[in-house]
Amino acid sequence: MWRTLTVLLLPPAFAAGRGLWAKVPPSCVEFWDQLRRAELDIDKLTIEDGISASSARHVQKFLTTVPFDGATFCVEAAISAATSSDAVLMSHVAESIAKLPHCFREMTFKSEAETRCPQRWYKVAIHVLKVNGLQDAAESMWRRAKSIKDKDGKALIGWPSPSQSPTVWVSGLSTRPYWNCSSWAFIQALEAAAPMILKEIERKDSEFLTAYPYLQTAGVWEDLFLYRGHQWNTTLCESMPSTCRLLLPELPTRPGVPYATVYNEEVVIFRSKRGASVGAHCGSSNGVINLHLTLKGGRGTSVSVDGLQVDLRDGEVICFQDSYFHSVNHGLDGEEERISLVIRVMHPDMDLKLLGSRTDSVPDLQAWDKSASLLREVERLRAEYRKLAAAAAWEQDSSCSV
Fold it and tell me: Between vectors from CA 37 to CA 36 and to CA 42, what angle results, nearest 5°?
């Protein structure tokens, strides 16, 4: 009987076991089942009126009796499979997490260049509303986030609008949806190398994984990381030597400035199939610009950033700020497969003085040694040059011996 109720009451994506929802424990299913039954007029819920007192107690009990990591995973999993009928309810639950004392306290001792628990969960609350088309509700939730102020009346969360609500917001950085790609000198070489890059990628067919399962997606959308968390995937680079040789000298793009977030700069390959779509979402920080090179399958695929749509073209790069809500649509009239190489780079205006006292990556910026960081980068480049020289010498010796 309990299983039957779950299928009847929860939205289709939940019942189908898609995304993160397939991995939740029974206690999570029971939590949402009871909450949705308590809110009989779920379609009439608003941000301003909130949930009923009994529902609020149910949420509070769940969040304070279940281990925090388990509770937050349960909420994220549900949101990844949400429908518009559940979005307002889920946004209230996300806000309830933001208001937990141990979560909210992070606003008092963490810098804005760090991931702060309340800001992260208000981001989640806004996300579930926007991705389900509830723009007015998203703006109401954004205003609630902006109402969090310090003793001087200054808003502690710097988001300028609901369209930009990343996990980390660094004040003082310029913002615009699309950027002129000529700001990055290696873009021209990247576009010229597109056929070579594609050839190397197509050898790696079996190594792709489902991309970002916590986002609302349809169809096949997969990824493969070349560079993440300050580390190059050396195994992958061995089978994609030309691609890595092209990019190794370029990252980090600003070696004299520490990363704000762990994944401040990345190199990732995306692959989608005809009919795939990636729901609107914003990235981790306004300090990240996406350099998006379409390698194949551009026809029929588009990217929308802050509501501004751009059609993708094979061999061309588009550049956009990761903090804006953006989405991807690989139309049914498009090519069978689309492959893109995305380089996430640090905002060109990023400066040490904008980061405050610490970041997610550097716990104490006062003790951070810029000279030592630059020296490590010089040594890294020297090591890569030695490898390149050795490979060139080996190729020359091989050709001479033939």
Answer: 55
pTM of the prediction?
0.89
3-class secondary structure, 92: helix
Shortest CA distance to 257 belongs to which of 232, 215, 288, 293?
Answer: 288
Domains and CATH numbers, the chain: 2-146 (no CATH), 178-368 (2.60.120.330)
Q: What tens digit of pLDDT does each residue of 29-68 get? A: 999 988 988 876 666 788 988 888 889 999 999 999 999 9
Beta strands (DSSP E) in 275-322 are 277-281, 288-296, 301-305, 308-311, 317-321
pLDDT tens-place string over residues 129-138: 999 999 999 9
Residue showing tokens 């990591």: 69
113 contact partners, CB below 8 Å, separation of at least 6: 168, 170, 260, 354, 355, 356, 358, 359, 360
State how far the Cα of 34 lies from the Cα of 45, in Å rounded to an integer.
Answer: 16
Whole-number Å distance between alpha carbons of 121 and 123: 5
CA–CA separation, 240 and 221 (whole Å): 21
pLDDT reported for residue 15? 40
Supply the DSSP string of 210-252, one letter for each residue: E--TTS-EES-EEEEEEEETTEE-HHHHHHSHHHHHHHTTTSS
Give the number of C-alpha atoms closer than 13 A to the C-alpha of residue 398, restricted to the C-beta side. Answer: 6
Compute the mean pLDDT over every residue in the chain, rounded to the nearest whole number. Answer: 90
Using alpha carbons, list the distances in angstroms from residue 344 to 52, 95, 287, 318, 319: 43, 29, 10, 12, 10
Give dist(CA 15, CA 3) in Å, integer.
10
Contact predicate 284/365, CB 8 Å? no
Q: Is 258 exposed, middle or buried (0-12, 13-18, 19+ CB in 10 A)?
A: buried
**Which two structure tokens, joined as six digits, stand for 252?**
């980090």
Q: Give the phi and the psi of residue 244 in degrees, each rounded to 5.
A: -70, -40
CA angle 176, 181, 187 (to 5 degrees): 150
